[in-house]
Write a structure and sequence with these properties.
Blueprint (H helix, E strand, L loop, with lengths): L15 H14 L6 H12 L7 H8 L3 H10 L11 E6 L2 H5 L2 H12 L5 E2 L5 E6 L11 E3 L2 E3 L4 H10 L5
Parallel strand pairs: 1-3
Antiparallel strand pairs: 1-4, 2-3, 4-5
Helix pairs in contact: 1-2, 1-3, 3-4
The structure holds FE2/S2 (inorganic) cluster.
């Protein structure tokens, strides 16, 4: 059975290409047990975020209310409702990293980037996100930049990592 395109309400409409991707993801994964999370992950992997206009399509595909889908998106820190910057920096804030100096890294990032968590720099270069364990606790403190995890990070090493990615100071 193919999905009709849902009424997206007041949300900014999806481009035709993005809408096709969302529909394809829902069609492909809707029969999985607990399909909502895999669908949201797949949409974010494809589009970089879960646009508000995708919510009614997902809701319709899974026979859920829009509020149920929205509730899951807002519950999990991982999901973004807005497109990220060119680089996504995730700083671990879980226990081992906190114990090994993650707060100093956070302080340096706030000074350098002038943003807080879940925000993007004015030039669109970096989105800063918290994450609660990267599975790299033995090398705490850890962060992940564009999918690459590094541990035993000091503030200077973190700065250098951003410099190497071309992020302006
Ligand atoms: S606590 Fe930071 S990687 Fe596990």
């Amino acid at each position: 059975m193919s999905l009709a395109v849902a009424d997206t309400g007041a949300a900014a409409p999806l481009s035709a290409a993005d809408q096709a991707q969302v529909l394809a993801v829902v069609e492909r994964l809707r029969d999985l047990p607990g399909a909502l999370l895999p669908i949201l992950h797949a949409i974010q992997d494809a589009l970089g975020h879960v646009p508000a206009a995708a919510v009614p399509i997902v809701a319709q595909g899974l026979n859920l209310s829009r509020a149920e889908v929205h509730g899951v998106i807002s519950f999990y820190h991982h999901f973004r409702s807005e497109p990220p910057g060119r680089h996504v920096l995730q700083l671990c804030r879980a226990e081992a990293c906190q114990a090994m100096g993650a707060r100093a890294l956070e302080h340096r990032l706030r000074e350098r980037l002038r943003i807080g968590f879940h925000e993007t720099t004015a030039d669109g270069a970096v989105t800063l996100e918290p994450v609660y364990c990267l599975g790299n606790c033995a090398c705490a403190p850890s962060a992940m930049l564009d999918g690459e995890v590094r541990g035993r990070l000091g503030a200077d090493a973190l700065d250098q990592w951003l410099d190497d990615c071309g992020v302006a100071r």
